[in-house]
Amino acid sequence: MSNATGSDEQALSYFPRWTLKTSGVIMPEERLSWGQTIVSGLQHCVAMSGSTIIAPLLMGFDPNVAVLFSGVGTLIFFVIVAGRVPSYLGSSFAFIAVVLAATGYAGHGPNPNLSVALGGIVAAGVLYGVIALVVMWSGIGWVERLMPPAVTGAVVAAIGLNLAPVAVKAVSANAFETWIGLATVLIIGVVAVAAPGLWRRLPIILGAIGGYFLYLLFANGLGFGKPIDFMQLSAAPWFGLPNFTTPTFHADAIFLIAPVAVILVAENLGHIKAVGAMTGRSLDGYLGRALFADSLATIVAACGGGTGVTTYAENIGVMAATKVYSTLLFAFAATVSVLLGFSPKFGALILSIPGPVIGGLSIVLFGLIAAMAGRIWVENKVDFANPANLITVAVALTAGAGDLTLKFGAFTIGGIGTATFGAIILYQILTSPIARRAK
Q1: CA 306 to chain centre
Q2: Would the pTM count as exceeding 0.85?
Q3: Which residues, in sequence order, are bridge partners of residue 90?
Q4: How many CB atoms lie within 10 A of CB 420?
Q5: Phi, psi of 30 (to 5 degrees)
Q6: CA distances from 181 to 170, 174, 240 (A)
Q7: Is 20 part of any domain?
Q8: 175 phi/psi in degrees, rounded to 5
Q9: Of 262, 182, 192, 225, residue with least CA distance to 422
């Protein structure tokens, strides 16, 4: 009996062996030096932190709890996909509209009906898990027929375009904040294109640091804007328990929130396709596992007071900019997030980052999300001479960018949901046998 070596050994082991590589494209089963891994992992923490904290704040959740469970969820994902799919799981924006509708949250301070929202998110996670198990049992074929590359690319683009107003609003309060946001964008671009060696792999974290210090200089030092207030940061303890909350289950909230699972499936599929396109290899064989991992992470998060989670497009944007896809980065970033969840000092530091700096980071990352749709279409040779593809994409992009909201009684679907369901349904109608016969 011969011993497996090399690629055979990789195939037989549950986790990759992560061979060292320090230049060029770093694939999922490769790794940087440990020092570079730590710094690049911290960059992913920075990339996820804005949205992972903004989303819970918009819903009245505790951001420290959300950060902690984003780390827990990412580690769950890492284990279930055997360390072979590079992804970070952060707070999902798909839940915001339905959580606000289910809880009547006024938008300031803690959500008094947080437990009700958590029950609905648990239900969404359970429905999500059922879909994942069906995919694992029956294969990816029916999902691909339901959401082919034309549709998944449209969903990915719609997500980026739907989030664009959030980024623009963050840099639009006044001329000073606009220039700080644009300066942050410029720093990111210059670092990504012209920085030497290792630094070129760190555009997001260096952009955040550069933007922060620029704001500190011109606002705190020269008085051009509202100064950063460090009182909360200095008063916050280094270590402390998060404010955990348990869910309660109410039928109306469950029926309102649970259907978000379908949006999470589309988001995850789009992200898997996007990472596959960037790495030049198909990750479809891990889709069922990825869906199940995301569903389990959502359930675990909601059981402790965290938001529903999803594979994060912001971190896919970082991978697109750095060409580093090593899954070890995400295991490290997740571990850091778990530790930071127990640090009120970290929450205060994140909250001290000026809005226009977060806005500048978001402009780049959300734009990269939308741009990745183009790569999905190119890699899969989507034919835009085909009216079914062209109209499906056109409608989805407009619905997502314009945040087209549909209401069915108490049930509301925001722009991402409308673009997702609209693209799926419209494509099926336009490619149905009836449409083909008419043609």
Answers
A1: 15
A2: no
A3: 310
A4: 30
A5: -110, 170
A6: 8, 11, 33
A7: no
A8: -65, -40
A9: 262
With tokens 């109209």, the residue in question is 391
Comparing CA positions, the residue from 34, 148, 103 lying closest to residue 307 is 103
Rounded (5°) CA angle 273-278-279: 100
Asked, for residue 10, whether it belongs to a domain, the answer is no
Express each pLDDT in 240-289 by its tens digit: 888 899 999 988 788 778 877 877 887 788 788 888 888 888 888 888 99
Q: Minimal CA–CA distance to 257: which of 429, 97, 24, 70? A: 97
What gap in Å lies between CA 164 and CA 170, rounded to an integer? 10
Q: Is residue 77 part of a domain?
A: yes
Owner of token pair 């890492």: 78
Beta strand pairing call for 30-31 and 89-91? unpaired
Taking all residues of the chain, what is their mean pLDDT, rounded to a whole number? 84
Q: Give the CA angle between residues 395, 396, 397 to the nearest 5°.
A: 95
pLDDT of residue 55: 78
What are 105-164's pLDDT values in tens digits?
A: 766 667 888 899 999 999 999 999 999 999 888 887 787 788 788 988 888 788 778 878
Number of domains in the chain: 1
The residue assigned the tokens 């922060």 is 212
- Neighbour tally for 388: CB within 10 Å: 19
Tell me which residue range forms the domain holding 33. 27-438
> b or e along 300-332 (b: 16 or more beta carbons within 10 Å of the residue's beta carbon)?
bbbbbbbbbbbbbbbbbbbbbbbebbbbbbbbb
Whether 214 maps to a domain, the answer reads: yes
Report whether pLDDT(83) > 80.
yes
